[in-house]
Write a structure and sequence with these properties.
The complex is a heterotrimer of chains A (236), B (275) and C (323).
Chain A (H helix, E strand, L loop, with lengths): L4 E10 L2 E11 L4 E5 L6 H9 L6 E5 L5 E4 L11 H5 L9 H10 L15 H14 L4 E5 L7 H18 L2 E6 L2 H7 L2 E5 L6 E6 L11 H16 L4
Parallel strand pairs in A: 3-7, 3-8, 5-6, 6-7
Antiparallel strand pairs in A: 1-2, 1-4, 8-9
Chain B lengths: L11 H6 L3 H24 L10 H13 L2 H32 L1 H15 L3 H12 L3 H25 L3 H9 L4 H37 L6 H10 L3 H29 L14
Helix pairs in contact in B: 3-11, 4-5, 4-7, 4-9, 4-10, 6-7, 7-9, 8-9, 9-10, 9-11, 10-11
Chain C lengths: L3 H13 L1 H5 L8 E6 L4 H9 L1 H5 L4 E6 L3 H10 L5 E4 H9 L4 E10 L2 E5 L15 E3 L5 H12 L8 E3 L3 H10 L4 E5 L2 H9 L2 E4 L8 E6 H6 L1 H20 L1 H12 L3 H9 L1 E2 L7 H10 L1 H5 L9 H8 L3 H4 L5
Parallel strand pairs in C: 1-2, 6-7, 6-8
Antiparallel strand pairs in C: 3-10, 4-10, 4-11, 5-8, 5-9
Helix pairs in contact in C: 3-11, 6-16, 8-9, 9-13, 12-13
Classes of the chains: A alpha/beta (236), B mainly alpha (275), C alpha/beta (323).
Chain lengths: 236, 275, 323
């Protein structure tokens, strides 16, 4: 099957410091892939290259036909717009109200359509950001450490929400995280990355059906593998 | 979960009672005190009344003026300030946007503006009088110059200060330059722009007085110099009071507009918001 | 220049130790400040020769240039000068508005003001000025001259547009075409006539008021001997000026920076013959005063005649040798 997304980075540097070297990643439809690695290892950079936010690299990118949406680490909502307007941001003032309303309900924020971002908690704001990502009906959703700024319990709820949305809207996920548990819980494949200059050290396949149980022993075994690899890479 | 719950009477009404009134009254204490002291000191004779008229005398003068030409002077001055401010602020916004958004424009224009900005206000007066004569034109241009720089400076800073994170959102959606400006840069720069506008307005008033002190036939600044030339310090003070009031009112209107447009801001607003 | 604030503090300090000083024999003051002006040529002579410095050897003498009666009186009221040179009618206006001043000497009687128009101007009489712009320095004799001329021609001050500009700026405005007429004052008026060919649209010797030296009431009470000495020095200067007309004109030209002919024209319309204030002066001031009331330049309810009586002090002239 033709991959939805194919990215090959031979080399990417900031100033003269190489950050990524020889990275190859292909994403299938409806697949969830996590990039796991330490801060500064270039995983966010890789994601930004896929999103088109970084254009200066040596390699090739083949993006999907449809839309690619991005969810940042911080919600990055426009503070002068309501939740509704933020979600429909890409369509200016003539956004699809019905679709927005549906998304608001799906992310669990019913009743907050007219609220301003200053009235939202961190978790709520991130839900709006996810809804915004979904608004353009993307085929791929790119997420850069999307839940690192919220507390552990909110994080778990948001992870479940993400899985639910991905399933419902048939979206592929490419997720960057430094949380091993999160990577394993969400993904079909976990790519463990090096310190910089970074490449993919190891690929762990998570062959568990959804919905997953966080207590599943397979997840624990995979976690041990991941940690071992990270230790070998002198990350921890 | 039910139990023997007791509804606690709401303490809310007590909170409401701490309304704005006592706060406003506190603000009046100092001015009233000063007025009373002045009145007493002048009446006793410690301060000569031909140099510092008693507040009661100034009040009488104000009433006299109000029955006569005061409104004409106010009208003329207001028109000048508004015209000058409108022109200066609009030009400043245009230039601020241009310089803020384009590194090239900044490289070419910023040094010139920096130089012009450091020219003290009163230094412009003889030059403008020479080039533009003693009519309305020179006065309005002077006021426009005064309003220009604060609006321009704050505008540029506001645009530069915009968080890159928001701009990236726009870039992610592949916004065109114009769309980026319209949807993200302008609204995000609004708080800084308002600061500039308020500052520009107060400077416009200041430059108005400077303009009217020289070669005017009507206006509040003219009234000021009128009092000076005919040994009428009470007229001088009356004019100052009217100017202060008008300045405060116009700033208040702008502040109200700012509050309305910037209601979305999530900022520190003094101790314990009693919204 | 003693600023107002300094004076305020001084007044408070003075209040504490006032009484003993008043009755002591008057010593020469530590400092005395006078104004000098191009419209008072004798002041220029006095300043040039230093006769006052000789008369008051233990006193620091300060000189302040005044650009017009309005400025002189302002300096006097704020304590910037102790002796101010102004038109007598301007002094009346100032006193009528509450300034406690006294006029003690006449520094000149001149036809120093008139309504001036450009040489190519179409106006032929004062009535032609209706609705036009006239530059006039508020609070000075030219301004009052203008009002009196307008009144005589049946116009009110609202029938024209009076632009407030200091004397030299008024001349510039006329010659540049920014105003239609200018209430001129010598030497600027003479300079405009000679250098720019401006002509005098309307002259009236009677509408010119004589020039006086004034002091504050307090000063008159506390330093009568200083005043006499200052006036004595003024007399010396006046005497020299009368006796040396050519050098006088040259001195005026040098000081004001204007050509000799201008100085000569100004002096030709200046009379230095009678420096003492007389009953006649009181009468002529009272005759001129109604304009102040009719044009609402003074506060309502002020008795201008009474003001003039309080203003003019003929006593200091008595101590001087008769000219």
């Amino acid at each position: 099957m033709q991959p939805l997304l194919d990215i090959r980075v031979e080399r990417k540097s900031f100033a003269s410091t190489p950050v990524l070297t020889n990275v190859h990643l292909a994403l299938q439809p409806r697949e969830a892939v996590s990039l796991l690695g330490p801060s500064g290892c270039g995983k966010s950079t890789l994601l930004r290259i896929v999103a088109g936010l970084e254009k200066d690299f040596q390699g090739q990118l083949r993006s999907p036909e449809g839309e690619v949406a991005f969810v940042f680490q911080e919600p990055r909502l426009m503070p002068w717009l309501t939740v509704e307007q933020n979600i429909g941001f890409s369509d200016d003032s003539h956004y699809d109200k019905a679709w927005v309303a549906q998304l608001i309900e799906e992310v669990g924020l019913k009743g907050f359509a007219q609220a301003l971002p200053k009235a939202l908690s961190g978790g709520m704001a991130q839900r709006v950001a996810i809804a915004r990502g979904l608004y353009s009906r993307p085929q791929v959703l790119l997420l850069d450490e999307p839940f690192s700024a919220v507390d552990a319990f909110t994080r778990m709820r948001l992870q479940d929400l993400l899985l639910q949305l991905a399933k419902h809207h048939a979206i592929a996920l490419l997720l960057v995280t430094h949380d091993v548990d999160e990577a394993l819980y969400l993904s079909d494949r976990v790519l463990v990355m090096d310190n910089r200059p970074s490449s993919i050290r190891q690929e762990l396949a998570v062959d568990l059906p959804h919905p997953r149980d966080r207590r599943d022993p397979l997840l624990a075994r995979l976690k041990a593998l991941a940690l071992t690899e990270l230790q070998r890479a002198h990350v921890i | 979960m039910t139990s023997k719950t007791q509804t606690v009477p709401l303490a809310a009404p007590l909170v409401m009672q701490r309304s704005a009134w006592p706060r406003r009254l506190k603000g009046l204490v100092l001015p009233v005190l000063i007025l009373l002291v002045l009145e007493g000191v002048v009446r006793i004779g410690w301060l000569p009344s031909y140099q510092m008229p008693a507040p009661s005398e100034i009040a009488v003068t104000l009433i006299d003026l109000a029955e006569g030409a005061l409104w004409k002077h106010i009208g003329v001055s207001l028109l000048r300030v508004l015209a000058g401010f409108a022109i200066g602020a609009s030009l400043a916004l245009v230039f601020a946007a241009w310089v803020g958004l384009s590194r090239e424009a900044e490289a070419y224009l910023e040094p010139t503006f920096a130089g012009l900005r450091s020219i003290p206000s009163l230094a412009w007066v003889p030059l403008l009088l020479l080039w533009l004569g003693i009519d309305e034109t020179s006065k309005i241009v002077l006021i426009a110059i005064g309003a220009f720089f604060p609006v321009y400076l704050n505008g540029v800073a506001a645009i530069r200060d915009i968080d890159r994170k928001w701009v990236e959102v726009g870039q992610m959606y592949a916004f065109s330059r114009r769309r980026l400006v319209r949807r993200i840069l302008l609204p995000a720069a609004l708080p800084g722009l308002f600061t500039g506008l308020r500052s520009g307005l107060s400077l416009a008033w200041m430059f108005l007085v400077a303009a009217e002190l020289i070669a005017a036939t009507k206006g509040l600044g003219y009234l000021l110099s009128d009092g000076r030339e005919t040994s009428r310090p009470d007229i001088v003070l009356a004019a100052i009071i009217v100017l202060a009031l008008l300045g405060k009112v116009s700033d208040g209107l702008l502040a109200a507009l700012e509050k309305h447009c910037l209601a979305w801001r999530d900022t520190f607003n003094g101790q314990g918001a009693e919204q | 220049m003693k600023p107002f604030a300094q004076r305020l503090l001084g007044a408070c300090a003075l209040a504490l130790c006032l009484q003993p000083q008043a009755f002591a024999a008057e010593a020469d003051p530590a400092q005395v400040n006078l104004d000098y002006a191009y419209y008072s040529p004798v002041s220029l002579v006095l300043k040039h020769f230093g006769w006052l410095e000789q008369a008051l050897p233990h006193t620091k003498v300060g000189w302040v240039l005044s650009q017009g009666s309005n400025r002189s009186l302002e300096y006097l009221n704020s304590g910037g000068v102790d002796f101010a040179s102004s038109a007598s009618l301007s002094a009346v206006l100032s006193r009528a508005n509450g300034s406690p001043i006294k006029s003690v000497y006449v520094y000149s009687r001149a036809e120093w003001t008139a309504l001036v128009v450009r040489k190519d101007s179409p106006f032929t009489s004062v009535t032609d000025l209706k609705g036009k712009k006239i530059a006039a320095t508020k609070g000075t004799d030219p301004y009052l001259f203008t009002l009196r001329s307008l009144q005589q021609a049946g116009l009110k001050k609202d029938d024209v547009e009076l632009v407030h500009l200091q004397h030299p700026d008024g001349r510039t405005a006329l010659e540049k075409g920014d105003v239609d007429a200018w209430a001129g004052l010598d030497p600027h008026m003479a300079a405009s006539q000679i250098q720019a060919g401006s002509r005098l649209l309307y002259r009236n010797k009677d509408f010119n008021s004589y020039g006086v030296v004034s002091v504050t009431e307090t000063y008159a009470k506390e330093h009568p001997q200083t005043i006499t000495k200052v006036l004595g020095a003024y007399e010396k200067a006046r005497d020299w000026a009368v006796k040396h007309p050519d050098e006088f004109a040259k001195l005026l030209a040098d000081e004001s920076g204007l050509p000799l002919e201008v100085a000569k024209l100004q002096l030709s319309r200046t009379d230095l013959g009678s420096p003492l204030l007389t009953r006649q002066d009181v009468v002529s001031s009272k005759a001129a005063a109604p304009i102040l009331v009719s044009e609402e330049l003074v506060r309502r309810g002020v008795n201008v005649d009474q003001v003039i009586d309080q203003l003019i002090d003929t006593s200091f002239g008595q101590a001087l040798p008769k000219p």
